[in-house]
Amino acid sequence: MHSHEIDYKIIGEALQVLEVELDPGEKVVAEAGTMNYMEEGIQYETCMGDGSAADQGVFGKLFSAGKRLITGESLFMTHFENQADEKRALAFAAPYPGNIVALDLGQLGGEVICQKDAFLCAALGTQVDIALSRRLGAGFFGGEGFILQRLSGDGLAFIQAGGTVVRKQLNDSTLRVDTGCLVGFTSGIDYDIQMVRGLKSMLFGGEGLWLTTLKGTGTVWIQSLPFSRLADCILQHAPSVGGKEQGE
User: Fold this and answer.
1) E strand intervals along the chain
2) What's the rounded Cα separation, in Å, for the pair 36 and 100?
3) What is the Cβ-side half-sphere exposure of residue 170, based on CA atoms within 13 angstroms?
4) CATH node for 7-230
5) b or e along 167-203 (b: 16 or more beta carbons within 10 Å of the residue's beta carbon)?
6) Which residues of 103-119 are buried (b: 16+ CB within 10 A; e: fewer)?
7) Is the predicted pLDDT of residue 48 greater than 50, yes or no?
8) Distance of alpha carbon 140 from alpha carbon 236, whole angstroms
9) Which residues face 186 on adjacent strands?
10) pLDDT tens across 182-191, in order?
11) How far apart are CA 100 and CA 11, in angstroms?
């Protein structure tokens, strides 16, 4: 199934909003709860799965949607369709501070692997599936476990990332990344987790015991502020519970 061709613009420098323009009859699928606003004529429906294979039957849809539960996402996705006679716009926003990255899957080899909570929305026809890590170390120590997300198709998909997003191009080379900072990579990249060398670095380096190692040829996206790191920082600096006196 070919993906619908959609127009878009990303608004803002931080805490970005993605505005998508749909021609009559065009659809976009999104994670539940990410819609920000929409113009009159846009109708939406909550469905099981991404709608990439409408003829797969009830059991196929249940199986596809059930795999999303493994990633910790909702069983359902929201499908938005322009039922007006002219272009209409709707917008999506990430649930935490950061940036939105547009992926033209047709120009990226038809597939991008990303962390399980990175997907924001995509043109109808994009398949959102799970990808199991092939390496034991990556599964146990990668922060995201064995489960990643696979976005495949020939159209536009959009992912969300914390802080600033850095795009790195590898050409038969190796890149080591903090396990939480990896957002996604193309299919030509081999993904593994390796232990930090040196006892002193392990105990006092402050970078954790494991680093993600990426090898091969392709594109890698890195985020400067993973949501888990932001949450830990907020918890560490949160004020302690006050006393019982009225003035506190």
Assistant:
1) 7-11, 17-22, 27-31, 35-38, 42-48, 76-82, 88-93, 98-104, 111-114, 119-123, 127-132, 147-152, 156-162, 165-178, 182-186, 189-195, 210-223
2) 14
3) 22
4) 3.60.160.10
5) eeebeeeebebbbbbbbbbbeebebbbeebeeeeeee
6) bebeebeebbbbbbbbb
7) yes
8) 26
9) 112
10) 999 999 899 8
11) 9
Which among 133, 151, 155, 152 has a CA at the least distance from the CA of 143?
133
Handedness of CA 64, 184, 79, 163 (dihedral sign): positive
Hey, is 121 helix, strand or coil?
Answer: strand
> DSSP letters of 16-50?
-EEEEEE-TT-EEEEETT-EEEE-TTEEEEEEES-
* Band of residue 143 on the pLDDT scale cut at 50, 70, 90: very low
One-letter identity of residue 27 = K
